[in-house]
Amino acid sequence: MSKEIVMFDVDAKDRDEVINLIADAMDKDGRLIDKEGYVADVMKREAGSSTAVGFSVATPHSKSVHVKEPSLAFVRLSHPMKWDDSEEVELVFQIGVPSPGQGDRHLEILAGLFRKVMHDDFREKLFSAKTADEVIELIGAV
Q1: Angle, nearest 10°, between helix axes 120-128 and 132-139?
Q2: For 4-67, where are the E strands, in sequence order?
Q3: Has this prediction a pTM greater than 0.85?
Q4: Which bin fits 9, alpha (ψ -120 to 50), beta or left (φ > 0)?
Q5: Tell me: domain 3-139, CATH 3.40.930.10, correct?
Q6: 71-127 residue pLDDT tens
Q7: Domain assignments of the chain as residue spans, ordered by start
Q8: Percent helix, strand, coil in the chain (nearest 5)?
């Protein structure tokens, strides 16, 4: 995780815009081979089932040939948004993992995140964080 892919108070109109904004940041940070290919892979995954996981959290992700290195991005939205027409989301963790070669690394990252986001104090600290460094320290190695 790097400061360049941690964003606060993002004002987006829908899930697709959030995913694209994060992909833009990941691409600018040199983490993607092909941004459009990565976005297409994330959207394909979203079409399979929602990545809204409760607790105001969504975890869009993809194992993709369009990713250079395992990446975890964070966005705190400026307002709650319907992620998939049912759940409201305010915190988004977007994951990109290269394929092939990383095995189930994306599942390890997801499991680490789930262990943390279930705790109210963790989410409260993310809502009050002012800097990317605070977020990176909170998330730690997942």
Answers
A1: 160
A2: 6-10, 52-54, 57-58, 61-64
A3: yes
A4: left
A5: yes
A6: 999 999 999 999 987 789 999 999 999 987 656 766 777 788 888 999 999 999 999
A7: 3-139
A8: 45, 25, 30
